[in-house]
Amino acid sequence: MNFKGRDVISIKDFSREEILYILDVAEKMLPIAEGKKKSNLLNGYIMASLFFEPSTRTRLSFEAAMKRLGGNVIGFAQPGTTSLQKGETLADTIKTAESYCDVIVMRHPKEGSARMAAKFASVPIINGGDGAGHHPTQCLLDLFTIRKEKGQIEGNRVALLGDLKYGRTVHSLAYALALFKVDMVFISPPELQMPKEVIEECREMGANITIKNSLEGLDEIDVLYVTRIQKERFPDPEEYKKVAGSYRIDLKTLENVKEDMIIMHPLPRVDEISPEVDETKHAAYFRQTFNGVPVRMALLALVLGEIK
């Protein structure tokens, strides 16, 4: 497969076979990501990290991925320090940045911004999250984590819990899991249900989907994917207050779950997972966080054409 020069905007742009290929490449990157092996695969390449919205894991793991492969990083994490403050358009920012780099990783608060940026850029654009739209690299590391923890993606019953309306991570993951015909349970307050178009499209792809508002039935779940209620996405603060703290995963919640059930979370968390859960065998979210490095290493090497 040839990924050279390809943009990574939405998981929907990739086939099941392409996703599995990326995960296989990421598997080979593990020793380098862990620091056990050295690599200069991307020596001489520069990645521009353009983060118009706050990030810890996505930004740092992309930078770690590039540097683990011998590449260099430029960019910003505070758009207030750039010419955007002077009225520069996103298109002009992208055209400027591509003059200095070989690949651009971008996070932006507006849905559709990454696809728009790709129209103006002559270098690959990797979407690090666009508003409530898509987060394809998070989705790939989520799939990598499920496969690594459970042995395979297929055959698992996956529950997506929390803010399913505004959560870009669960939108991307739902589409990807549907490619693997995974049974899914969507658990959320009525106000934060998964968008109808996502549900309908996933069902058309062959996914079996159950929609619930309560935590009952966790004993049937293989993977519990928890998300926070995202205050910053709510247009009305009063609406946020109505649903804040709707669910909390603690030791009591886990009393009857499967022995090998894993809990994932894209992080950051607020109070939806009790810290006491961190010490249980179910907690996979910090391992999940690390998995962003080999997956993003694989993507960078693929779009830059150093792995085919």
Report what the structure shows.
By secondary structure, the protein is an alpha/beta fold. The longest helix is centred in the C-terminal third of the chain and has 19 residues, at 285-303. The model has no long low-confidence stretch (mean pLDDT 92). The chain has helices at residues 16-33, 57-68, 90-97, 113-120, 136-150, 168-179, 196-204, 237-243, 285-303; strands at residues 46-51, 72-76, 103-108, 125-130, 157-161, 183-187, 209-212, 223-226, 262-264.
Rg over CA atoms: 19 Å
What is the CATH T-level topology of the largest domain?
Rossmann fold
What are the secondary-structure elements, in order, as H or E?
Answer: HEHEHEHEHEHEHEEHEH
Measured as a percent range, the helix fraction is 25-40%
Give the number of domains. Answer: 2
Helix-and-strand structural type: alpha/beta
- In CATH, the homologous superfamily of the largest domain goes by the name Aspartate/ornithine carbamoyltransferase
- Approximate strand percentage: 5-15%
Q: How large is the count of helical segments?
A: 9
Lateral strand order in the biggest sheet: 7-6-5-8-9
Low-confidence stretches: none
Q: In the CATH hierarchy, what is the architecture of the largest domain at level 2?
A: 3-Layer(aba) Sandwich
Tell me the number of strands: 9
CATH class of the largest domain: Alpha Beta
Which geometry do the CA atoms define? globular
Q: Quote the average pLDDT.
A: 92
Gap between N and C termini: 6 Å
